[in-house]
Amino acid sequence: MIEADPTIRVRLLRSLGKSASQVASVLRNEFNLSTEEVASLLANDLAPYSAADIDLAIRGVYQPAVIPDTTKVSDEVTRNALSSFDSTTGRMTFSAKTPLLGTVEPGDVLVGEPSAAAPYGYLRKVTSIRKEQGSLVLETTQARLDEALQQGTLDAEGILQPSDLLGTEAKVPGVTFSAISAPSDTPQAASVIGDGYNFETAVDVTLEGSASGGGVTGSGKVRIQGYIRFNAGYDVGVGVETCAEIPPVCVDRFEARLGVDQYSRLQVDGQFDGTLNKEIKLATHYFKPVVFFIGPIPVVLVPVVDVVVGVNGDAHLKFSFTSTLTAQLALGAKWTDPDDGGKGWEDVSKKNGVQWTIPEASVDANMHLRAYGKGDAKLLLYGIAGPGFAARIGGGLDAQFPRRPLWRIFGYIGASVNFQVDLGGVLKLSEYSKTVLDEEFTILDAPNQAPRFSNVVTNIIQANVGTPVTLGPRSGFTGYFDCMDPEGEQITYTATSNINGPLNSLTVNFQTPGLRTITVTARDPVGASSSITLKVDVRNSLPIVSISAASATVPATVQYFVTATAYDPDTGAFLGCNSLNWRVISPDTLTLTGSGGTCGATVIFRQEGVRTLTVTATDPHGGQGTSSISVNVTPVPQNRPPVINYFSVQAFRGPFSHICPDPNYLCEAPNNAILFNGQAGDYYPPLYLYLSASDPEGAPITVQWFCKTGTQQAPVTWDYTYGYPSCNPIYSSVEPIKVYAIVSDGVNQVPSEVRTYTMLQRVN
């Protein structure tokens, strides 16, 4: 049993894929919540609905719709009791008589959301009721919206997503379908529907003379290969009001639009003599029903999209061309009641933009032939009938020999809308059908043209000394420009640097830093050329040296432990210990001691006063960074201080980027290691601390451990499992974690080396 709690109810319905309108209807009917309460619940679910979806749902469910007593809205119990529904005969069989069904009489309108037996919902007028073998059988006919309500409006909109796709049916061999997300090889035009492209249909079909049937006259073969990508979004509006007619309810407004972002790339090859005028349906995409509400009345829209490839024109002998075109269309029509001051049917379509790339072509013929990709879409009300839209984009080739120009490549865009007289009985309006667009436009014609650059990066390109950089053309994730020859011929490139002179290739490994201007020239086989300039900033950032010690004061002749690191900004990594050069001034002495992967040294200062320790790091390209520390050296102690023989900091588990002898047991945590924060990091806290020391005078010694983040000290406790002091460092986004010890014989104090760690910030 699920508790009758609105938050839990929203979570359950959301997990079942219900729309915002469906959830809002349940919250109103079951919990009698206000619009503000419903909006808050929809916006604060674990998977919140968008503000636009919430607004549509509230406006639909909470509008003051007028519903006659003869309209019965199926509740969940009644929907679940429906065992079969034949939309052709209108027979509805219920396994049990629910309280709602007990109120239904002949002449009533029964309306319901999608269910297992009625996946597209239903809007039916009851003609008879009878019992049959323990079941309740309703004979029905299709009802109209203006029979189900007396006053109300429908506003519905959305974008078709891959998750909305129920299935795809391929209509011919050689067709594949996939859901995609803005492939990198697709032009990114200004979109009217979302970002990128969500759907792709690949095609490889062949037409063979008269064997292909209607639309093909002649002999030979024509092969069409490529793909059609698209996005689609919709909006539908319906208005119902009382009027002076019989019956006294009229539809005063109906409008529908379909936004289409479409990209078509088709390669046409053939040897043909004749005429072609044929469309081939490639695939039908069925999307899951979308439910909106007019008050309590559910209205079900079922999007269906057919993808079609077409070719028309005439061709003689051998030809080959590629048609690539991108278009954004908003197709639609609007009807308002002329008897109520309306305008009847109006075209509300818009062409938001058309773009293309320069196609490739070869021809040994006279021809005028175009190929296009087409999307036929319908918005079916209750899965029965609805407005239709068609968008065609593509291009073609017009060639004639001899002629100047020898050939012309053109783009083609066409679109149409079709609103039926009788939308499956759901609505009755006057018919409207219109060709919105039917255009051809020249893209390119002969003679020879120079190679063309595009998408050239104008910002300064960052590069590092000794690291190859590919200037272009683009391929995958490399390159800073695109270039193509209008005739499809081979392009050769040369490049010159204002510092290095001619370059051997467009992949360059600069060995010295500096800002360069690179001139890239592209030439076709005829010699036509074009050039661009690129700015390349080659950098060799100096290493950043850091020196750490537990104290800035030490008695002369006493051990002084120091650790150092060198960070290379160009590689984003620390340099190895062998890149460091340590230096003290005589008579001071220094011994490298690095332990556990840490770069360290032990210094004996033999002269009182302020003494200096310097560390210089050299990167692989000769860049040097230097850092120094000053140490206050006090007089030699009267009795000899303790001597630290061994120092170690180990982690509970790790590491994961550099394998240690046993990554499942305690493992040395070197300087600058990243500690695990619950999400990322190489070494798992807690840290285990070990130090071995002795006193030359035989005095008892004590060890005090410090596990500090800035000024915060983490507790150091004894771990009885492993037999070591242990600490869990405190996280800080700005302060490093430092671990060290101070050894004392009661008179003298000797600080150990310092291990420094970081911990990444967690991402919620």
Can you give me a brief rundown of this structure?
By secondary structure, the chain is mainly beta. It has six helices and 50 strands. The strands form nine sheets. The chain has a 15-stranded antiparallel beta sheet that branches. The protein has a six-stranded mixed beta sheet with strand order 1-4-5-6-3-2.
Polypeptide structure, described:
- The structure is a single chain.
- This protein is mainly beta and about 775 residues long.
- It folds into five domains: about 5-145, no CATH class; about 160-445, no CATH class; about 450-540, Immunoglobulins (Immunoglobulin-like); about 540-635, Immunoglobulin-like; about 640-764, Immunoglobulin-like (Sandwich).
- Helix content is about 5%, strand content about 55%.
- It has a 15-stranded antiparallel β-sheet that branches. Strands 1-4-5-6-3-2 form a six-stranded mixed β-sheet. Strands 42, 44, 45, 48, 49 and 50 form a six-stranded mixed β-sheet that branches.
- Strand 11 and strand 12 form a beta hairpin.
- Helix 2 (about 20-30) crosses helix 4 (about 50-60) and helix 3 runs antiparallel to helix 4.
- The radius of gyration is 39 Å and the shape is flat.
